[in-house]
Amino acid sequence: MQKQTPAVIALAVAASLAAGIAGTLIVSKAIAPPVAKPIAMDIHAQIFRATPARELIVMTADGRVFSGAQKDEFLQQSKLYYVSRGRFTYSVDMRTLGPSNFKYDARSDVLKVKLPNITVRTSVYGPRERIAALALLASEGTSGNELERVAAAALERDATQEAARPELMSAALTSAKYEVSKLYEDAFRASGRTTRVIVFASSEPLT
User: pTM to 2 decimals?
Assistant: First the structure.
């Protein structure tokens, strides 16, 4: 057998080491978990910190509410109608936002946010002005009290219908988009970012 020279042996050892290192790198790359880019990790942490764990009131409005009740007895009709003021509150529950509500584009530095459904709450306040009440109501006793209760309940119910008018819901959605975008952009600005935030309604695709 021909004796190998020291130079040949050294070259073979170096080649073996290089192959081993390359193999180790390939295996490590295959089994290592994917690591998010630092900028993506950073913005998601900021989103988490900026999102309040409560409902965010986006608009309040006032309006007149008209409703009432009637009942027929012995061919005589008793009516009781009220007109009053209603206060309408529109909010979004930020606690319902999850990862699927956010889409971040690192290249353009734009964050897209999908809102939950807007929640509407109403309350009737101030004196109820009684209108179209027949004199018979005063002598009906318990029937008159029942009519009072039914009319008052109708007033509360119709306040909710009044608050759900399309023009009011549209205004509330516009306000919600502004308030949520301002919430996140202010938080980003405080940390030195200039991220732009675009907000979508719950019915709009997050494109």
Answer: 0.73
| Measured distance between the N- and C-terminal CA atoms of the chain, rounded to whole angstroms | 72
Long-range contacts of 60-64 (CB under 8 A, 24+ apart): 60/87, 60/88, 60/89, 60/90, 61/87, 61/88, 61/90, 61/163, 61/168, 61/171, 61/172, 62/86, 62/87, 62/88, 63/88, 63/162, 63/163, 63/168
The CA distance from 88 to 120, in Å, is 7
Residue 198 CB coordination number (10 Å): 14
pLDDT in tens, 70-85: 876 655 577 888 999 9
pLDDT at 107: 94
